[in-house]
Structures are given as C-alpha cells and as structure tokens.
C-alpha cells in the first residue's frame, strides 16, 4: 500500500450524503468534512429554509475557493415525525429532479437533535415528547426514508453508511436535569445497534457517534458562566471538542477506513465517558 492508497482510504470521492441538522453546529462540520473528503453531493437539512440556504451558500463558497469537486444542496424538513422524514425524502427527490441528478444516497447522517433541561417535578410532558420524537423516532424514520437508496449504494467491501449522532449523555447521563435527553440518546444508541444487525446483511453499516461537549447553539447556555472551563479542566484531555475532531471522525466513519466497522457507539469526548466529572 502506498501513502496515496492510505490517504484514499480516508476519503469519500464521488459519495452522495444526506445530513439532518446540518444548517449549523456538528452537522455543518460533518458536511464540510465530506466536501473536503471529495464527496460529490451533500444535502443540507434543518427546519429553517433560510438557515439551510445560508449553510449551502457558505459550503459552496468553500468548495469553490478550495477547488473541491462537490456541491451542497438544500432540502429543509422537520424530521421529528415519520411525515417529516417523508417530507425530507420528497424534498430530496424534488431537488434531484430539478437539477437533473441521479437519486443516490451512499451516506445518511441522522444528526438533528434537541435537548431540554428542567427540574424533575417541573419537567413538561410536551418537552419530553419533543426530545424523544426528534432524537429517537425521527432518526428511525429518516433512515427508513432513504433505505431503498442505501440498499442500492452498498457493497460487501464498502457498505452504505448510516451515522447516528448519539451523545456521551446516553452513556454516562452527565447532562444535569436532562432526563429526556439522556434517555433519548441511550435509546438511539440501542436503535443504532439494532439497525446495524438488521441492515448489515443488506450492505448498510450503522454506527453511532457519541460526542462529548462541543461549543454549539445547543450547548451555549449550558457551557456559559464558567461551566465550559470546568468541563475542559475536568476532561481527561483537558479541553472541549473541536471542529477538527468532528471532521476527522466523520471521514473515518464514512470512508473505506471503517468499511468493517458496524454497530459501534464511538465516544468522541476526550475520555470523559470513562469517568464523568461531577458538575
Ligand atoms: N454540541 C454538543 O456538545 C453535542 C454533544 C453530544 C451530542 N450532540 C448531538 O449532536 C447533534 C447536533 O447538535 P449541535 O450541538 O450541532 O446542535 P445545534 O447547533 O443546536 O444544531 C441542531 C441542528 O438541528 C436542526 N434541528 C433542530 N430541530 C430540528 C427538527 N425538528 N428537524 C430538523 N432539524 C432540526 C437545527 O436547525 P433548525 O433550527 O433550522 O431546525 C440545527 O441545524 C444533536 O443530535 C445533539 O444531540 C451535540
């Protein structure tokens, strides 16, 4: 194997990817990673039409500036229900038809997620349902909505990829008052393992990324007032997550490098899951 062969193992040339929750935060970084890795198409999705359009325009500017072969497309949808996941697929089909593109999906990243923290006796029923719907139910129906294309894309040597964004909160329960969030992430880890076993024979692998704390809109409130510094200080690697951490692991989980990895929950947290600090 040459150095070029080795580099190619970590690239995703010509791949087509759909990423939910990619208008900002971790999902946006994943989209950028795939374009940098040579993907042909990356479909950006979230509820807000304007936010998707802005992300697409930023990503396409990066692709132009760096002379990358790929392009980003916008397919907004609320993926917290089956109807929403079906609407995501309909938006995908519509864009492909308009642009004259072959409907293909080699990679589906079910990343959209929501959180809620409230004292135990005040925790709203509606918030519990909202978190479970998006973080578990929506993940399942997003995968189902693209199954036909994933089945066509996978081969024994290079399966189609489903990546689910879980959380270390599903491993350690370290999000204070995050009853629904912690339960949803533990649940979606198990959902991912079930899908890995069921879809593996169809040449589709399913892996779950479990990030620790990364600065984003979702974590901004929690990490404010010195909590972020405390989380960094008490992390075994003495810092929070970086964009480059997301970019590296995204390319690992979607490239040939991980062709035989299936059903894992991969913590990306500097080792905090091994012994979570008290907050
Ligand atoms: N940041 C962290 O430290 C961390 C740690 C562990 C796990 N995670 C997980 O990583 C994922 C991304 O988190 P993040 O930190 O990047 O959060 P974020 O910055 O809040 O981004 C969330 C994304 O999801 C979209 N979204 C929210 N509700 C949606 C819905 N119902 N349907 C479709 N899209 C929706 C948002 O856009 P719209 O508002 O336009 O819909 C946005 O694009 C989540 O699953 C989260 O649980 C994050």
Give a structural overview.
The chain is of the alpha/beta class and 279 residues long. It has a single domain (3-267), classed as Rossmann fold (3-Layer(aba) Sandwich), CATH 3.40.50. It is 47% helix and 13% strand. The protein is built from 11 helices and 7 strands. The protein has a 7-stranded parallel β-sheet, with helices on both faces. The longest helix is centred in the middle third of the chain and has 21 residues, at 125-145. The protein is globular, with a radius of gyration of 18 Å. The protein binds NADP nicotinamide-adenine-dinucleotide phosphate (NAP). NADP nicotinamide-adenine-dinucleotide phosphate binds at residues 20-21, 23-27, 46-48, 51, 78-80, 111-114, 134, 165, 167, 211, 213-214, 216-219.
CATH fold naming: Rossmann fold
Tell me the major beta sheet.
7 strands, parallel
Question: Radius of gyration, Cα only, in angstroms?
Answer: 18 Å
CATH C-level category: Alpha Beta
- Overall body shape: globular
Distance between the termini: 47 Å
Number of domains: 1
Structural class: alpha/beta
* Strand tally: 7
Count of individual helical segments: 11
Pfam families: adh_short_C2 (PF13561)
GO molecular function: oxidoreductase activity
InterPro entries: NAD(P)-bd_dom_sf (IPR036291), Sc_DH/Rdtase_CS (IPR020904), SDR_fam (IPR002347), Sec_Metab_Biosynth_SDR (IPR052178)
Family: Belongs to the short-chain dehydrogenases/reductases (SDR) family.
Describe the secondary-structure layout.
Blueprint: H1 3-9, E1 16-20, H2 25-36, E2 41-45, H3 49-65, E3 71-74, H4 82-99, E4 107-110, H5 125-145, H6 147-153, E5 160-165, H7 169-172, H8 179-199, E6 204-211, H9 217-220, H10 227-234, H11 243-254, E7 265-268
Parallel strand pairs: 1-2, 1-4, 2-3, 4-5, 5-6, 6-7
This protein binds NADP nicotinamide-adenine-dinucleotide phosphate (NAP).
């Amino acid at each position: 194997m040459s150095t070029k062969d080795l580099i190619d193992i970590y690239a995703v040339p010509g791949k087509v990817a759909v990423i939910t929750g990619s208008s900002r935060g971790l999902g946006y970084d994943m989209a950028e990673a795939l374009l940098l890795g040579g993907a042909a198409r990356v479909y950006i999705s979230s509820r807000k039409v304007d936010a998707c359009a802005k992300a697409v325009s930023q990503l396409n500017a990066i692709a132009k500036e760096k002379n990358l072969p790929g392009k980003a497309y916008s397919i907004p949808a609320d993926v917290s229900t089956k109807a929403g996941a079906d609407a995501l697929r309909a938006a995908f089909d519509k864009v492909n038809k308009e642009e004259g593109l072959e409907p293909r999906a080699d990679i589906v990243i079910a990343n959209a997620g929501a959180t809620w923290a409230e004292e135990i006796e005040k925790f709203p029923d509606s918030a519990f349902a909202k978190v479970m719907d998006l973080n578990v139910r929506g993940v399942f129906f997003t995968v189902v909505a693209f199954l036909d294309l994933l089945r066509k894309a996978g081969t024994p040597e290079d399966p189609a990829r489903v990546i689910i964004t879980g959380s270390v909160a599903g491993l350690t329960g370290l999000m204070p008052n995050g009853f629904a969030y912690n339960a949803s992430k533990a649940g979606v880890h198990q959902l991912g393992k079930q899908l890995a076993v069921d879809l593996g024979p169809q040449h589709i692998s399913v892996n779950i990324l479990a990030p620790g704390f990364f600065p984003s809109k979702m974590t901004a409130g929690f990490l404010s007032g010195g909590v972020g510094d405390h989380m960094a200080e008490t992390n075994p690697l003495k810092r929070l997550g970086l964009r480059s951490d997301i970019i590296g692991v995204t390319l690992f989980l979607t490239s040939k490098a991980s062709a035989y990895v299936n059903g894992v929950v991969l913590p990306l947290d500097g080792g905090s899951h091994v012994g979570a600090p008290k907050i």
